[in-house]
Amino acid sequence: MTLQMITDFIALNGYGAYVWPAFGVTVLALGWMAVDTLHRLRANERLLNELQKDDPR
Amino acid sequence: MFNFLANPARFMRIGNAVLPWCWTVAAIAGAAGLYLALLASPADYQQGDSVRIMYIHVPAAWMALATYTLIAFFAAVALVWKHPLAHLVAQSAAPLGAGFTLICLVTGALWGQTSWGTWWEWDGRMTSVLVLFFLYLGIMALAHAFDDNERGNQMSAILALVGFVNIPIIKFSVDWWATLHQPASVFRAGGPAIHPSMLWPLALMAVAFTTYFAALLILRVRGAIAARKVQALRLVKGWNR
Amino acid sequence: MGALLAITIHDLRLAWRRGAESLSVIGFFVLAAVLFGFGLDGDTAILARVAPGLIWVTALLAAMLALERLFNADYEDGSLDSLLLADPPLELVVLAKCLAHWLATGVPLIIAAPILAVILNLPGSNLVPLLAALALGTPTLTLIGAIGAALTLGARRGGVLISLLVLPLYIPVLIFGVGAVGDGARAAAALMALGGFALAALALAPFVIAYALRQAAR
């Protein structure tokens, strides 16, 4: 894995300036989807646990 | 209310069982797909390495359409059979669908700039995908616009069904109007017209996106069910005070 | 039939009472066209090219601005419930109200269109296609808009929400509406598409609207 190979891979024959932002945006969007989902899940389950502790039913 | 509590438990049992499989398949398909997409597949003879964006753009587009179809299906179920869980699933899927649509639009703009020389074109497909994005936003906004949650869900479901007319427009727009977009190469009568070295990463990324979506949907629905229980418990506590 | 006519006249009278609204609507269109003329520095060549688009966008905005009032007054004072129980089917009542809305927004635009065409330097041969396109398209705008109005009854920030909901559904009408202003086969095809939209909206929208109104009244 020479430095030349790595720089070639990043440059992608000049298209790198478009390809990498595309993949980057995708990772960000997918990541946000996961973070938001998990955040909501944890917040709601925490609330539910607290409410059910005071009032076991 | 206890009728509602019974079914979701079954739903969550199935969901929780399926969840680890979804993550695993997503990880494997994603890794394999990315490897093929970025390293082991050929550059296009016309578009060079920019074609690698296709391996994200196209599966994202498929997800955007499939998710909307899912939402419309559950919206119809919710309106006809009045099952509250159907509303939850539709509403949980909406932000995920919006996310995939956004990915499709942004990667499409980047890809378009390199291969057609323009970031955007008001052709049939791009315009209708933009419309799809606004429909997603509308579905989410409408559901939360009312003090009465049930009413919000119902109006949102109606909107989802009205907007479903956009889906065939997106699918067939490249056939109806001669445009920059190429006509269908995978889902067409006669089978895919694309070389296996490109079809494999495409399929793998599609599988990865689908299983990722399924995992997140299960978790979102789980969160939504918990939120419903919180609401119900708070109501009961309010009475007992 | 008598009841439907009464509803239409009632709504129109309400619109009229809000300060001779139809006249001010036409005035709004002419003013908008004049502003566009100034804004584009009186460049007649550019004006001629963008005239169809400008006129159509004005049509959209005019339809959208009047949507919030379509059902709100009845919803707030409770007469929506009596409309639900009234003799004529709710779908026809809805059509009557949409007719009133169209008479207050779409028809003034069609009347103002020749004036706008002159101000915006639209080629004379395009006037008839423009009028035809508006005649077919503006009722569709009203009907689709009414769906949005019915869905957002009683919502928080209803006005902004209506625009968000209705805009994506308006875009095809806008695209074909502008496309129909011209000559040749493409324009004729666009005009037919507009006609198709109008028929579909006429057939389907009243049922969707009535369904949403029934949910709202519960």
Characterization of the model:
The complex is a heterotrimer of chains A (57), B (241) and C (218). Chain A has 57 residues and is an all-alpha fold. Chain A has helices spanning 3-11, 16-54. Chain A has one domain (17-57). Chain A is 84% helix and 0% strand. The mean pLDDT of chain A is 87. Chain B has 241 residues and is mainly α. Chain B has helices at residues 2-40, 54-81, 84-115, 124-143, 149-162, 166-176, 196-240. Chain B has one domain. Chain B is globular. By secondary structure, chain C is an all-alpha fold. Chain C has one domain (2-217). Chain C has nine helices and no strands. Chain C has helices at residues 2-17, 21-39, 44-65, 68-77, 79-85, 90-119, 127-151, 158-179, 185-217. The model of chain C has no long low-confidence stretch (mean pLDDT 86). The A-B interface holds A 9, 12-16, 18-19, 21-23, 25-26, 29-30, 32-34, 36-38, 40-41, 43-45, 47-48, 51-52, 55 and B 38, 43, 48-50, 52-53, 56-57, 60, 95-96, 99-100, 102-103, 106-107, 110-111, 113-114, 212, 216, 219-220, 222-224, 226-227, 229-230, 233-234, 236-237.
* Arithmetic mean pLDDT of chain B: 88
Main sheet: strands, sense, barrel of chain B: none
**Could you spell the SSE succession of chain B in H and E letters?**
HHHHHHH
Number of strands of chain B: 0
First-to-last CA distance of chain B: 21 Å
The topology string of helices and strands of chain C comes to HHHHHHHHH
**What count of domains describes the coordinates of chain B?**
1
Question: How much helicity do the residues of chain B have?
Answer: over 70%
Extract low-pLDDT stretches of chain C: none
Helix/strand/pairing category of chain C: mainly alpha
User: Strand share of the residues of chain B?
Assistant: under 5%
